[in-house]
Amino acid sequence: MTTLAECLSGWAEGLAARRQVATTLAALTEGAVRVAAMLADGPEQDGEGEEIASQAAGRAGKIMLAALSGTPVAWAALEGVDTPVALQPGAPLAVALEPLDGALNAGTAAPVGTIFSILPTPSVSGSDGTLAFLQRGERQLAAGVVLYGPHTTLALTVREGTHLFVLDRASGTFRLRRRDMRIPEGRRTYAVNAANYRYWTEGVRTYVDDCIAGEDGPRGADFKMRWMGCVAAEVIRILQRGGIYLYPADSRPDHTSGRLRLAFHAQPLALLVEQAGGAASDGVEPLLQTAPRRLQERTPLIFGARDKVARIADYETMKLPLGERSPLFGKRGLFRV
């Protein structure tokens, strides 16, 4: 079975800029192998959920930063950390890292993941490197998600399709499992935290109401709901099984701009999804056309099958009718499409 190293070697052969990206990807995935081993050993000590999450995320961040030592990376930025870390001055690349997505799951052996994005270092990146991460998502050179579960899975794109690798634990090598993945169309699955229903916009409520109404509603078919508390796990599932993921903005004071980070979650996931034939938006606008204004800027995030993401946008922009309020489900669409 083809290894990740073989794939990267063939892709980068004879091209210096690609070799730099390949070297960085090799380092990131080697770091992920070490994170997988760390997680497999369980928490270092007893503690409450948030304490265990903080410990695990901190250890994962240190492992990933150490892995980037000696790579052609000028700056590395971590989710939740206000200032990028300087690595190799003048190097051509910058790496945005979410070392441990879903960290609250770490203490219960539920799914957690690592998300990364590789960007070109601009000619002017600022004294602290922040400008390197304030680029439109379409500028990304590569992006990936590592999911730590029953097996360790890597979804990776270098802008030539999205490919799935699985870690061979015996050799510590990622091996190609699926090439040029395509998100399946027509799958009736959605992922959303329904506990936040009362805070959503009317457009998002209507979409979810239509799914809940199932074959008796305007969609004319039953839907299944998923929620794993880890967007890395959700994207791996949707790449293989289709459907849609929703983490919308809502009316709570600290959620009006969404909760996930544009540079650390939304942009790399959007590239992976679009390279697999899907779509990703903030509910209306495509995320790859958006640039963060601040390093830790938050955003709503909708991704999955292209037709489903478009339907959300149609509801949010009132291109589809929101219908009359149902006593049980709130507003519902009127027409089957």
From TrEMBL:
Gene Ontology MF terms: fructose 1,6-bisphosphate 1-phosphatase activity
Q: Does the keyword Cell membrane apply?
A: no
Check the record and name the InterPro entries matching this protein.
FBPase_C_dom, FBPase_class-1, FBPase_N, FBPtase
Identify the metabolic or biological route this protein is part of.
Carbohydrate biosynthesis
Decide whether keyword ATP-binding is in the record. Answer: no
Q: Any idea where the Fructose-1-6-bisphosphatase class I N-terminal domain is?
A: 91-176
Q: Which residues form the Fructose-1-6-bisphosphatase class 1 C-terminal domain?
A: 183-315
Which superkingdom?
Bacteria
Primary location: cytoplasm
Q: Which GO terms describe its biological process?
A: fructose 1,6-bisphosphate metabolic process; fructose 6-phosphate metabolic process; fructose metabolic process; gluconeogenesis; sucrose biosynthetic process
Q: What does it catalyze?
A: beta-D-fructose 1,6-bisphosphate + H2O = beta-D-fructose 6-phosphate + phosphate
Catalytic activity, EC: 3.1.3.11
Subunit field text: Homotetramer.
Of which family is this protein a member?
Answer: Belongs to the FBPase class 1 family.
**What HAMAP family does the database record attribute to this sequence?**
FBPase_class1
Q: In its UniProt entry, what is this protein called?
A: Fructose-1,6-bisphosphatase class 1
Q: Which organism is it from?
A: Rhodovastum atsumiense
Query: Which gene specifies this protein's sequence?
Result: fbp
